[in-house]
Amino acid sequence: MALAKEIMGISLLEKSSSSFMNSSMALLNPNFYQKENQLWFNQQFQGRRNLRTRKALRQSPMAAISENLIKVVPEKAVKFKVRAVVTVRNKNKEDLKETIVKHLDAFTDKIGRNVALELISTDIDPNTKGPKRSNQAVLKDWSKKSNLKTERVNYTAEFVVDSNFGTPGAITVTNKHQQEFFLESIVIEGFACGPVHFPCNSWVQPRKDHPGKRIFFSNKPYLPNETPAGLKSLREKELRDLRGDGTGVRKLSDRIYDYDIYNDLGNPDKGIDFARPKLGGNDNVPYPRRCRTGRVPTDTDMTAESRVEKPNPTYVPRDEQFEESKMNAFSTGRLKAVLHNLIPSLMASISSNNHDFKGFSDIDSLYSEGLLLKLGLQDEVLKKLPLPKVVSSIKEGDLLKYDTPKILSKDRFAWLRDDEFARQAIAGVNPVTIERLQVFPPVSKLDPEIYGPQESALKEEHILGHLNGMTVQEALDENKLFIVDYHDVYLPFLDRINALDGRKAYATRTIFFLSDLGTLKPIAIELSLPQNGPSSRSKRVVTPPVDATGNWMWQLAKAHVCSNDAGVHQLVNHWLRTHACLEPFILAAHRQLSAMHPIYKLLDPHMRYTLEINGLARQSLINADGVIEACFTPGRYCMEISAAAYKNWRFDLEGLPADLIRRGMAVPDSTQPHGLKLLIEDYPYAADGLMIWAAIEGWVRDYVNHYYHDSAQVCNDRELQAWYAESINVGHADLRNADWWPTLATPEDLMSILTTIIWLASAQHAALNFGQYPYGGYVPNRPPLMRRLIPDENDPEYAVFLADPQKYFFSALPSLLQATKFMAVVDTLSTHSPDEEYLGERHQSSTWIGDAEIVEAFYEFSAEIRRIEKEIDEKNADTKLRNRCGAGVLPYELLAPSSGPGVTCRGVPNSVSI
């Protein structure tokens, strides 16, 4: 035993001496670090087993004895230089003020108002008992490089450290300039461990505005209880700074993440018509929390927050704001919206007849020639418009007309067909509402004392002739009947909606039959209105037509279904379930998970831009008199419908497999590849989605298992537990007492929660968002609102309908102004920006995490995503899959992971970024 101790002591002394020699050799031999680098990289790939061995060694009695032996022979510290390479990203375009301040900063940099850095070791300084710090170093040549026009500029700084400094784990940055700058990354070269990467990707504010030093951590992840001693206090300080104190008006340069209710959608100071209910913090109107801005209350209502209107920016933490290329793409879309909205306004002023589309040719002209050109007014209007300079880079003709939506690309009349109407329920822009019909007739869950009988008006005779000889019960038993049911969503709001000017709606139910070919066909549509009296005819059923009059009735009924569908899609499935419900998880992640936490590093790309796009939505989309209210049937009641749906939202059912089972679209089956059997085998959204879900789940499993080996590690991770608890108790406070919230006690729990969040942020949002213009840009296919009910034989309008059914049909659709405004907005929302990061991609993929085993696992995930994309392409060419291949049938590409910029009807970005 004594011999073993002696040998162990000698070997460790030799290792220590070797470390000393390495430091000395590095100073003499510039090629030394390249060899050390390669050695370090190779060692990383030996994986977790070596890590466990080293931990066991550190805990052994022999290690403790050897440490004492080392203390007996103290090393003499040797000073040497290390270099920082700092990458700063320039703005492509600067305004005059920014240019002047930039030149001023270049001048004052020479006299000491510079950018200063300080290295911080992972070790504690034995003298100060605080983090071990280097000397301060400043960026060189700022003034010389200030005029470089390149996108990225590299600066250097030199530190002098001694050989017992340890490994750098953090770096502070002090900006003594007048202007902020975007710090992309820092690499420290010269340590024996090889280059140390600091991925920053943050705006560094001037000291005059934000006196504290900015802290950046290296890319090496640490669970909280494994944080090196030298970094513990910095880890805690950084999180405290990000949380703020919950008071004050936020400045645009702040980086503070906090919560508030949706009390900023209305503007009561403009009048009662602009007041809106507060969403959240109220038992009657529950809602997720949003990012706090701290603006002062309105003059009229002290509980309502004052608004900031465009073009003034609304607050989100500085690093959440769109980067320049993203903002340029978004602004171009907004510019197109302004022009497109102006054109029909001018037309309407010329002739009152232009308020409605006269026929299909009027709609076609939006894509082919542009309305102004058609009227000979193009030159006159262009002279009057104060167009910004950005227009000069775009063809004026393109700005004055719309791109042809994809729904028209293979068959201009596909939208009229019943099979296409049904196909879009499983392969369109809203494929997440359809359910298997389990009881016929369907029954409402609304209170019968308030909303009348719960029974449906649908009878067996309505559908019996469309079941291929089956009885209704046989069709139910064989899983042949499906339903899209909006009855309970809309009925409580219909009296108020139908009292609005130019809005008319039903609460609809649509029954579909599954054919032997695997395609759906609509066989009955129920249209319900509130019961206004004991003898009122509040429910009617429309069935597939047998004559000309019935055909137009059927087309109007389908249009009303599509209008219901468009509202639920936008307000519930898209906005609420992906945008709004994810925001609390993102806020809590920034507040409770350190940037060095491995779970933060996993979630980081899936949180990009979400707070910014949600802030922009509150400013101009979901606000009082905003685009959503203007363009969708519920009008001023849009967000109340969204809040009503939130009462039934359940995080535990938001994952794809759970959602498919909940809707009866799949049943558990262990023999199937994903553990599920789809009841409609050719269900493109579900089939493609399950492949992506499984890939995300596999990646998350590898990631979580790498850092958490047992339940104790999950339970004892205070940052992780604080993140999840705050997401529920504060971010989703109105539902915090629900018993369905998943627990977070095991690695498996963590995998499930993270997979669901990543799925919602990436694939689920992509499936619901990027088809909006390709399918909805042709308004008759998916009218976002309706202006007329279907006339009854006893109605005065019935004679008008019979005399000119096409004119009546177009008078029921959105007006020219409403349609073009809607088209301009969904065009912008369907557009990928040039800097988009797609699923399976990581910007700075080689440096985002200092763990080679995780990098390797990510490359495997990326390869699986590419394989899935090829399989989707193959499915879209398979003629047996009639819901995605056939004459005039659009391929289903909304879950094809990659895409170029623009409106492509494909591509799965990592995050909710538009």
Automatic annotation (TrEMBL):
<comment type="subunit">
    <text>Monomer.</text>
</comment>
<keyword id="KW-0275">Fatty acid biosynthesis</keyword>
<dbReference type="InterPro" id="IPR000907">
    <property type="entry name" value="LipOase"/>
</dbReference>
<keyword id="KW-0444">Lipid biosynthesis</keyword>
<comment type="similarity">
    <text>Belongs to the lipoxygenase family.</text>
</comment>
<protein>
    <recommendedName>
        <fullName>Lipoxygenase</fullName>
        <ecNumber>1.13.11.-</ecNumber>
    </recommendedName>
</protein>
<dbReference type="Pfam" id="PF00305">
    <property type="entry name" value="Lipoxygenase"/>
</dbReference>
<keyword id="KW-0443">Lipid metabolism</keyword>
<keyword id="KW-0276">Fatty acid metabolism</keyword>
<dbReference type="InterPro" id="IPR013819">
    <property type="entry name" value="LipOase_C"/>
</dbReference>
<dbReference type="InterPro" id="IPR042057">
    <property type="entry name" value="Lipoxy_PLAT/LH2"/>
</dbReference>
<feature type="region of interest" description="Disordered">
    <location>
        <begin position="283"/>
        <end position="315"/>
    </location>
</feature>
<feature type="domain" description="Lipoxygenase">
    <location>
        <begin position="221"/>
        <end position="914"/>
    </location>
</feature>
<dbReference type="InterPro" id="IPR027433">
    <property type="entry name" value="Lipoxygenase_dom_3"/>
</dbReference>
<keyword id="KW-0223">Dioxygenase</keyword>
<feature type="domain" description="PLAT">
    <location>
        <begin position="96"/>
        <end position="218"/>
    </location>
</feature>
<dbReference type="InterPro" id="IPR020834">
    <property type="entry name" value="LipOase_CS"/>
</dbReference>
<keyword id="KW-0479">Metal-binding</keyword>
<dbReference type="InterPro" id="IPR036226">
    <property type="entry name" value="LipOase_C_sf"/>
</dbReference>
<keyword id="KW-0560">Oxidoreductase</keyword>
<dbReference type="Pfam" id="PF01477">
    <property type="entry name" value="PLAT"/>
</dbReference>
<comment type="function">
    <text>Plant lipoxygenase may be involved in a number of diverse aspects of plant physiology including growth and development, pest resistance, and senescence or responses to wounding.</text>
</comment>
<dbReference type="InterPro" id="IPR036392">
    <property type="entry name" value="PLAT/LH2_dom_sf"/>
</dbReference>
<comment type="pathway">
    <text>Lipid metabolism; oxylipin biosynthesis.</text>
</comment>
<dbReference type="InterPro" id="IPR001246">
    <property type="entry name" value="LipOase_plant"/>
</dbReference>
<dbReference type="InterPro" id="IPR020833">
    <property type="entry name" value="LipOase_Fe_BS"/>
</dbReference>
<keyword id="KW-0925">Oxylipin biosynthesis</keyword>
<keyword id="KW-0408">Iron</keyword>
<dbReference type="InterPro" id="IPR001024">
    <property type="entry name" value="PLAT/LH2_dom"/>
</dbReference>
